[in-house]
Amino acid sequence: MFKTVRAAVVLLVSAVVIPSAVAEGRPNVVLMMADDLGYNDLSCYGSTRIRTPHLDSLARDGIRLTSFYSGSTVCTPSRMALMTGAYPTRLGWPGGVVGYRIPGNRGLAPQALTMGEVFQNAGYATGICGKWHLGDSPSLLPMNQGFESAFYIKRSNNQTKKLWRGDKLVANPFDNRRLTEQFTREAISFIRQHRSKPFFLYIPFTAPHFPAQAHPEWKGRSSNDAYGDVVEELDSRVGEILQTLKEKEIAHRTIVVFLSDNGPEPGQRKWASAKPLRGLKWSSLEGGTRVPCIVRWPGVIPENRGSDKLIAAIDLLPTLANACGIELKPNSNAAPKMDGLNVWDTLIQKKNSQHARTNLLYWDGWAKLEAIRFGEWKLYLGQVKGVAGSAEGPVLFHLGNDPGETKNLAARHAEKVKDMTRLSAQLTADIKMNAIPLGDSQASP
After folding, report:
1. Which CATH fold topology does 361-433 show?
2. What is 12-357's CATH number, 3.40.720.10, 3.40.140.20, 3.90.550.10, 3.90.180.10?
3. Share of the chain above pLDDT 70, in %
4. Where are the beta strands (DSSP E) in 323-368?
5. pLDDT given for residue 336 in this prediction
6. CA distances from 276 to 302, 316, 351, 402, 406 (A)
7. Residue 87 in contact with residue 314, Cβ under 8 Å?
8. Burial letters for 290-320: b for 16+ Cβ neighbours within 10 Å, e otherwise?
9. Domain ranges within the chain, ordered by starting residue
10. What is the pLDDT of residues 324-378, one digit of tens each?
C-alpha cells in the first residue's frame, strides 16, 4: 500500500529573502512559455519537421525534462497553476478558459499569491510580455498581480485584437503576425533596463496558438506550413533573448526556463505533434499536458542533461524561489494551499537526493478529474474519451514502457489500482477542503 502522499501544504502569504542569498547575489529569472506547443514540436524533442536550433542549444546548455507536465490541458488554468503553484481547482477553476465558459470579469483571485508577487516582495523587478488570460477586469490584470511592467494581451490571440501596456491601449487591432516579435522586443528592453539588479521576467508567447500566421520575414521558411514558420520564428526570438543576456554579461546569473502551456490544439493537429504521446489540448491523455521544458543556469545546472523524473509546472514556483534564496512563509490567512514541490535537487542533479514529486492529478479541460499518476503508473478513474475500456472500469498504464497509453494493465495489478484510487481520493479531498473561489469583479468597459 502507498503511504499517504500529500501535495505540499505550505500556505503562502509573503516572500522573505534568505540572507546568504543576498550575500552571494541573487540570480535573475526569465520564464518563457509557448502557447499550444506540442511535446514533439522541437527538434531537441524529436521533431523532424521543425528546426529549433536555439532551443536545442538551450537544452545542451542545461537540462531537458521529458516527463514534465503543464499546469492544465488548456490556457487559463495552466497559467493559474504556473503563477501560484496550486492545482487550478484549488483556485475555483470551473472548466474552460476566460472568454469561453469563464466570463471576463472572473479569473485568478487577487488573494492568491502569484509568482510575480513572490519575486516582487523579494525585491526583484518584475515584468510580463505576452498573453495574460487570467481575467480582464482591472483588479485581475497583471499590474495588480505582482508585475510592475506589463505589455500584454488579455486573452488568446483569437479572442482579442487589443494590445496593452499597463492600462494603456497600444494597438487595436494588433498584427497577429508580429506579436512574437513585439513581445521579444519588449522583453529585450526590459532586460537591458534592469540588467544591474535582480529581475523576474515572464514571457508567455502567443505562438503557436491558432491562428498561426507567419511573420512576413518567416513566411515559407519551414517545411511545415505556417505553423512551422511560427515555431521557427519563436525559436529565433528565444535566441535573441539569450543573446541579449550574453551581451549584457548576465547569462551566468540568469535562470532560463522554457515550457509550453499545454499540448497541441486539435485544429492544428495536421502540423503540431505530441508523438509518441496520444491526446491533444483539452484531453487528460499524455499529449494534452506533457510538454517540453528546458531549464538552464550556467555553472549551476549541469550541461547537456536529461531527466525523466516527474515534474510539473506547479513545481516551478517553489523551485525557482528556492534557487533565488526566497523563503515562502506560511500564514493561516493565505490561500490557497500550494501543491507544488521544490525539485531543485533534481535540476542540479544532486547525488543521493530523493526526488520530491511522486504523484500528479489530471483534469480535462472542463475540470473533470480523470486520472492520477504515481511513479511510472497512470490510472484513469472513470470513463475518458480515447481510453479504451475506461467505460467498464479503471484503466492502468505503465508510462515508462507504454507512453502511448495502449496496454491496459489494470487486471494484472488490482492492488495498485486500489491504492492509487485511494490516494486520488485523499488528495482531492484536501483540495476540496482548502480551495478558494474564482476571482470575481466588475468587468472593465
Report:
1. Arylsulfatase, C-terminal domain (3.30.1120)
2. 3.40.720.10
3. 92
4. 326-330, 359-363
5. 78
6. 27, 25, 30, 9, 11
7. yes
8. bbbbbbbbbeebeeebebebbbbbbbbbbbb
9. 12-357, 361-433
10. 999 997 655 556 789 999 999 999 999 999 999 999 999 999 999 999 999 999 9
> What are the tens digits of pLDDT across the range 177-229?
999 999 999 999 999 999 999 999 999 999 999 999 999 999 999 999 999 99
Pairing of strands 163-165, 149-153: antiparallel
Please give the grid coordinates belonging to residue 231.
Answer: 515555431
Cell representation of residue 321:
524561489
Q: Which tens digits make up the pLDDT trace of 254-312?
A: 999 999 999 999 999 999 999 999 999 999 999 999 999 999 999 999 999 999 999 99
- Whole-model pTM over 0.85: yes
What is the Cα–Cα distance from 146 to 157, expressed in whole angstroms? 23
Please tell me the distance from the alpha carbon of residue 36 to that of residue 38, in angstroms, as a whole number. Answer: 6
Tell me how far CA of residue 9 lies from CA of 159, 336, 339, 433, in angstroms: 35, 9, 7, 12
- Overall size of the chain counted in residues: 445
Query: In Å, how far are 18, 224, 409, 420, 436 from 414, measured between CA atoms?
Result: 47, 44, 9, 10, 35
Residue 248 backbone phi and psi in degrees, to 5: -85, 5
Residue 132 near residue 203, CB atoms below 8 Å: no
Q: Which tens digit of pLDDT belongs to each residue from 45-98?
A: 999 999 999 999 999 999 999 999 999 999 999 999 999 999 999 999 999 999
Cell 523587478 belongs to: 125
Cα(244)–Cα(241) distance, integer angstroms: 5
Mean pLDDT across 15-24: 49
Distance CA 43, CA 33 (A): 17
